């Protein structure tokens, strides 16, 4: 596996640095889709930066923005919930090994869906308000704190399959994410609803 170098800036406006990581997620997802690249290297880099980014946000960024009243407690909790959903999808992606390319593609598609949804929502409900309500000086101070923690996690390695599984267990234990049986039941209900909706659409086309 050829290593993909993850940028590790040490300072700057925290909002701009977070946006840079969001674009990095997109680049690594694109690399992971291609069949002419080192997919394992892309998967490893994507996992590491997703976990480091989210963990450092929860520890350093969200609490400070809530204290500054740039975001509400609900927005902080919702961001953490979406991070847990990303961890859940990431774990499935990391487990998609072997000779089943369809499983790889399916789990990558699910991961891309939850990552892109979170990035878009975070940019609208957290980053935009913080840009208006938090001074540049404070954002730069926060940038150093967030990047220091992010880079520390990247340096020590934070996204092995075992580490990601442990983070998922932690999210469930803290009540951020529902237990697996409940999530599986909810997924089954959603899948049945999708199938029913498709049936309705197909029937309407024939009318």
Commentary on this structure:
There is one protein chain. With 207 residues, the protein is mainly α. It has two domains: 14-176, no CATH class; 177-207. Helix content is 80%, strand content 0%. It has seven helices and no strands. It has helices at 14-33, 39-67, 73-94, 101-133, 136-156, 161-173, 180-206. Helix 3 (73-94) packs antiparallel against helix 4 (101-133). The mean pLDDT is 92.
In short:
With 207 residues, the protein is mainly alpha-helical. Helices cover 80% and strands 0% of the residues.
List the helices and strands and how they pair.
Elements: H1 14-33, H2 39-67, H3 73-94, H4 101-133, H5 136-156, H6 161-173, H7 180-206
Helix pairs in contact: 1-2, 1-4, 2-3, 2-5, 3-4, 3-6
Keywords, please?
mainly alpha; 0% strand
Q: N- to C-terminal separation?
A: 54 Å
Radius of gyration of CA atoms, rounded to a whole number: 18 Å
State the secondary-structure class: mainly alpha
Q: How many H/I helical runs?
A: 7
Q: Could you say how many structural domains there are in total?
A: 2
Mean pLDDT equals 92
Work out the helicity level: over 70%
The proportion of strand residues reads: under 5%
Would you count the extended β strands for me? 0
- Main beta sheet strand tally, sense and closure: none
Q: Element order, helices and strands?
A: HHHHHHH
Which regions have little confidence, pLDDT < 50, spanning 5+ residues? none
